[in-house]
Specification:
By secondary structure, this protein is of the alpha/beta class. The chain has a single domain (3-208), classed as Vaccinia Virus protein VP39 (Rossmann fold). It has helices at 3-12, 20-31, 49-55, 69-78, 115-124, 144-150, 159-174, 183-190, and strands at 39-43, 61-66, 83-86, 100-106, 126-137, 194-198, 203-209. A 7-stranded mixed sheet has the order 3-2-1-4-5-7-6, sandwiched between helices. The longest helix has 16 residues, at 159-174. The structure holds S-adenosylmethionine. S-adenosylmethionine (SAM) binds next to helix 3. Residues 6, 44-46, 49-50, 66-68, 71, 87-90, 106-108, 111-112 line the site of S-adenosylmethionine.
């Protein structure tokens, strides 16, 4: 998808954020993030809902990156304390410096040119003992179960922006270059990771952790 479409998506994306399954997913992601982490990165921050959940963990520093300037502006309004970077996750992330104790990447992987390459880049940016928490829509994901879990009657107040989201998602689904992964495919890309369903069973939540910090003087693990 080109940047212009993400910029349009930014105007209506927060209709999704009002869906109960999305709220539950944000809480599930937050539960995977330790209290008071050091540096955290929200990779593909969108309108900043995960950035806000990260901020509530009181990290030393939050960096929020996205390709879409419109998404970044919205996130910045919600989370003025974060550092914002316009960055393309299809690249080598040169726009973002350093390593992170926690990286979250919510519903971005499916839209990237080469998920394996981006995952390798994100993993290379984890500090020793760091953690990557990601969500991504699964193969065959549908809106129906999400809407039903929210409650169809409870939708009426924000039905218009949701319809726009539906149109954009339909466009995504018609484009073959998006990556909706099975659990095995995601597991193959991530390596040793805990993977479970989230978002009314329509997405995967994966947690990948690097090992504890290595003591390079004698090769043993630091506790
Ligand atoms: C479906 S939204 C998810 C936003 C947010 N992470 C969340 O969970 O609510 C996908 C986000 O990925 C961003 N994105 C798509 N392709 C990207 C790329 N190549 N590099 C960086 N961000 C990208 C979009 O601009 C958009 O903000």
């Amino acid at each position: 998808m080109n940047t212009a479409l993400w910029d349009v998506y930014a105007r209506c994306y927060d209709a999704v954020a009002r869906l109960r399954p999305y709220e539950k997913m944000v809480l599930e992601i937050a539960r995977e993030v330790p209290e008071r982490p050091g540096r955290v990165l929200d990779a593909g921050c969108g309108t900043g809902n995960l950035t806000r959940a990260l901020a509530a963990k009181h990290p030393r520093e939050i960096v929020a990156a996205d390709l879409s300037a419109a998404m970044l502006r919205r996130s910045q309004r919600k989370n003025p304390g974060a550092t914002y970077v316009r960055a393309d996750l299809d690249g080598d992330l040169a726009e973002v410096s350093g390593v992170f104790d926690v990286i979250v990447c919510g519903h971005v992987l499916y839209a990237l040119a080469d998920p394996a390459r981006t995952l390798a880049t994100l993993k290379s940016r984890l500090a020793p003992g760091g953690r990557l928490v990601l969500t991504t829509p699964r193969a065959g994901a549908r809106m129906g179960p999400i809407v039903r879990e929210h409650g169809i009657l409870a939708l009426w107040r924000f039905i218009l922006p949701l319809l726009v989201v539906g149109v954009i998602n339909a466009r995504i689904l018609r484009t073959s270059s998006y990556h909706f992964l099975t659990r095995d495919e995601l597991s193959g890309l991530l390596g040793a990771a805990e993977i479970r369903p989230t978002y009314s069973g329509q997405s995967w939540l994966a947690v990948y952790s690097t090992g504890p910090e290595l003591d390079l003087t004698n090769g043993s693990r630091l506790s």
